[in-house]
Amino acid sequence: MIHPIPPGTRDVLPDEMRELRRLHLALIEVFEDRGYGEVATPAIEYDEVLARGDGRTADTAYRFFDGSGDLLALRSDMTLPIARLIATRYAKAEMPLRLCYLANAYRAVRPQRGQMREFAQAGVELIGAAAPEGTVEVIEVLEAALDAAGLERAVIGLGDADLYRQLLAEFGVEDEARDSILGRLAAHDLVGLETELSELQGVSDDQVATCVALSQLRGGKEVLEEARALGGAAVERATARLGETLEALEARGVAQRVQIDLGLLRDLGYYSGAILEVYDPALGHVLGGGGRYDGLLKRFGVDQPAAGFALYMERVHVAQMEEETPGGERP
Amino acid sequence: MGRAKADGPLKLAVPRGALLSETLDVLDAAGIDTSEVRGESRSLIFPGQSISLVTMRPSDVPTYVEAGAADVGITGKDVLLEQADRVVYELLDLGFGRCRMVLAGRKGDKRLGESERRLGMMRIATKYPRIAERYFEGTGRQVEVIEVKGSVELAPLIGLADGIVDLVATGRTLEENDLEVREEILGCTARFVANRVAHKLRAREVDGLAAKLREGLAR
Q1: Omega before B58 cis (within 30°)?
Q2: What is the pLDDT of residue A88?
Q3: Which residue in chain B has the smallest CA separation from A330?
Q4: Which CATH class is domain B10-97+189-218?
């Protein structure tokens, strides 16, 4: 008899599990070697606790009432539960704190094409280490994790989460209009971006062109120069932050995989400063991401800078297999 | 920096059907050889030195591009809007393939208005259920959207629906079926789209192709 399971969830059988386990162990070893202790937290939390970190995640959270009428939610990533854990268990601990995890998270997405309702993430959180050193350490751990996974061709995109918020403030674009433009930028809808910005009052054609051009700048160090040439205080600040991070990465000899990307904008609400995304040429989907969230812990009552990343385990596994048969086209 | 090496030629998804001939013209203007596609061949893949052309239904373009099976592609804005949940980067408005998404009803027929007034709801047949739902939601009206796959003009003629939401280029099909445009929903043109990872890892090639397409259009 066939007994169904909900779409977007799946069973793992021994052949796959063996490979996944090998990947899990390799990653946890990388994290532990660098002083990141593994933690586990409950998959269900109080909704109001998770919503404290980021109200927006509520869009895709699974929520339900328990027997005593409390509203619970399944975690949709590990960053918020760990922020809660730090505020509760490590409020007076000596910083920096290094934690890592391998855990399932849940999102109420329409399950299709690699979008799962239940998925495994492996990642680290570095608490109490400011930019650029903290960012650099996290990128260094990420590089080691990608090496351990055998993804030699993987690339880390490095961008700045504050760039467009500040740029749009400079243009005098605020509130709803700003959020809408940020949405266009996050989706990389250049046609819509240009049209919508042009229709706003007080935004000049030059400013529209600057915004569109900025979002297309990605590559090596040279793009920082190209960005500066476009001008403006927001661009100056963002490129200075990125330049500083990149120099520190180079000094530690870990900049090879890093691609500067001024078009990077992750849609999670809590990011500030550096943001990261991970790609592999063998896979059309993003393998993971992260960045700084210096304001997040404050919302839980601990004012500490923080940074981290998470890799989607199933996608890393797919990339591992695709890299074994390069070229993309199967016979 | 950017240690990744590109795997072979860039794969460009080319829409078959109504957009094909203008797509090929634009590619020609951009200096891409399309003679093979124009020929009698029934192949789906046309390999090239720096760019390979892959032909498919326009509505499949976002699927292939999102998954990275094609690095870049060309398709209509109507397709992108209908599949808005697919993550592809929309880089360029190519300007051709211009048409309008409209609400149409039978000529001189009051059913659309009457259904709304007396039944609180219009029945709308369409091949674009999501665009239709979003439009009526956005204009504060209740509808029952009926998805059909074939000639949607048939639906109001034999009483499946009060009206239709469909794409109109010249308006001749509506005319021939005794239908008329009641409301304009939006204008659509062909767009150049890219896979998210290809846009990052094959930046130079993707930007180069976008620039050539832009130049070709300006000519």
Answers
A1: no
A2: 94
A3: B69
A4: alpha beta
B90–A255: do the CB atoms touch at under 8 Å? no
Point out the residue among A157, A190, A329 whose CB comes nearest to the CB of B200: A157
Cβ distance B203 to A218 less than 8 Å, yes or no, reads: yes
Is B180 in contact with B105 (CB distance < 8 Å)? yes
Q: Where along chain B do the CATH 3.40.190.10 domains lie?
A: 10-97+189-218, 99-186
Among B5, B64, B197, most A C-beta atoms within 10 A, so best to mutate, is B197
| Cis preceding linkage at B47, omega within 30 | no
A291-305 residue pLDDT tens = 999 999 999 999 999
Tell me the pLDDT of chain B (219 aa) as tens digits. Answer: 333 345 789 999 999 999 999 999 999 999 999 999 998 888 999 999 899 999 999 999 999 999 999 999 999 999 999 999 889 999 999 999 999 999 999 999 888 988 888 888 999 999 999 999 999 999 999 999 999 999 999 999 999 999 999 999 999 999 999 999 999 999 999 999 999 999 999 999 999 999 999 998 887
The Cα of B161 is separated from the nearest Cα of chain A by a number of Å equal to 28
Size of interface A-B (CB pairs under 8 A): 90
Query: What superfamily would CATH give domain B99-186?
Result: Periplasmic binding protein-like II (3.40.190.10)
- CB-nearest partner of A284 from B3, B66, B203: B66
Q: How far is A130 from chain B (nearest CA, A)?
A: 25
| Whole-prediction pTM | 0.88
Structure confidence by residue, pLDDT tens digits, A106-148: 998 876 666 789 999 999 999 999 989 999 999 999 999 999 9
The pLDDT value given to residue B164: 97
Candidates 3.30.930.10, 3.20.20.450, 1.10.3720.10, 3.40.366.10; correct CATH number of A11-158+266-331? Answer: 3.30.930.10
Domain spans of chain A, in order of start: 11-158+266-331, 162-257
